[in-house]
Amino acid sequence: MIAPALSTPTVPRGVRLGYGVGSFCTATVNAVPGLLLLYYMTNFLAVPAWLAGVVVTAPKAWDLIINPLVGRWSDRTRSRMGPRRPWLLAGACTLPIAFFLVFAGPPLTGVPAALYVGACFMATATAYALFEVPYKAMPGEMTHDYHERTSLLQWRMIFIGAATAISGVLAPAIVTSQGEDGTLGSYRLMAVTIAVILLASMLGSFFGTARAPMTGAPEPDRGGWREQFAAIKGNSPFIWITALACTQMLAVSMMLAAAPYFAAYTIGTPAATQTLFAALVGPMLLTMPLWVRLSRRFDKRGAMILAALLFGGGTAAAVATPLFGAVYAHLTILVVGVGIAGVQLLLFSMLADVIAADAARTGKRRAGVLTGLWTAIESGVSSFGALIFGVILSLGGFIESEPSTPVQQPDSAVTAVLIGQTAVPAVIIFVSVLMTLKYRLTPPDGPAPDASS
């Protein structure tokens, strides 16, 4: 059970907005490469599907090193701007440039193109860590109150919904503006546009959190890596939330990587990627207040189970798309969007609870280390979604191509696309429902009957 709150401060509305706008960065950097990068490499740079999957996945191994390092550095930062905000500024100065270079479209194909994209994606991951890790550590330090953290994070999720709309609707629209399948030039235009949005959102969050309260432990943990990892190893709520996030985000990343293929080969038009994402994003923008109320009514565990069931149920139902058509596919994705909205809100709220509970128990500031480890592990595992989908495509006989030489995919490849978009992610999500039954961190004024301290 979470330690009793020392106070119940309300985070100012301006800080909520300033913090939330940073989610344009965190959501966009995850979604755009997850949605477009695999397709960009296989269909524009003639990179084999399995190698493209490796390129998307490999830089995430670097996250296991850089994210905990950035978290540790931010924990120990002493600055008039606080321990986190200098790192937000560092990320804002580097990430937009690195992101553009990923989609710059050099005159390369095959393995050389894969090496170039992989190097640029590694630089993007590094710059992203400078911003993301301190950014995600902040909610657990803004308030002691269990439910206030969920209320604070709904603002973040609203901006994530808007950013997902940009990623899933605007980015593909720019890509296809110069032809149904896009061109290298349209990918460059998309990259420039998204880079400008990233810069604006990151600077907005840096300035918008200038008055953010700091209620976490005042002193950083000065222990060495061995001592810190030993303490974290015994932190069962942290281990639980990390495992749950890995499971759920693995399914999300598979569906992101599969979406352009699902639109092109199952529904029959690449432009459906945009309308599918509109169906996904709508619930994220509209259902946040509902999920906040449900988390109060059924506690976060009960609300998470409901959200995951909607997510998994909608994903499983989409397997019937070849029978019922495009409208049916959009309705199933609408259900998925309602579920994902709840899953993401509750995941980050639970992480903030774990950070606050750790600070209350130890008296040390370790939010950066905890967030860095959580982000690195979750990001690394979830990145296997693209790799798994790439392997599924290869097993189905998917043929890589260039725009000048389009190919007719075999029926086995089309079936592989459907399975990778629906059946496999659904199974993963239903596993997460079983995992959620192990959740134990509850509010001080009303723990669940079977919760343990």
From TrEMBL:
InterPro entries in the cross-refs: MFS_2 (IPR039672), MFS_trans_sf (IPR036259)
Keyword Transmembrane helix set for record: yes
Gene Ontology molecular function: any one: symporter activity
Transmembrane segments: 21-41, 47-66, 87-105, 111-131, 152-175, 187-207, 238-263, 275-292, 304-325, 331-355, 367-393, 413-437
SUPFAM superfamilies listed in its UniProt record: MFS general substrate transporter
Protein name: MFS transporter
UniProt keyword annotations, A-Z: Membrane, Transmembrane, Transmembrane helix
CDD domains given in the database record: MFS_MelB_like
Taxonomic classification: Bacteria, Bacillati, Actinomycetota, Actinomycetes, Streptosporangiales
One GO BP: carbohydrate transport
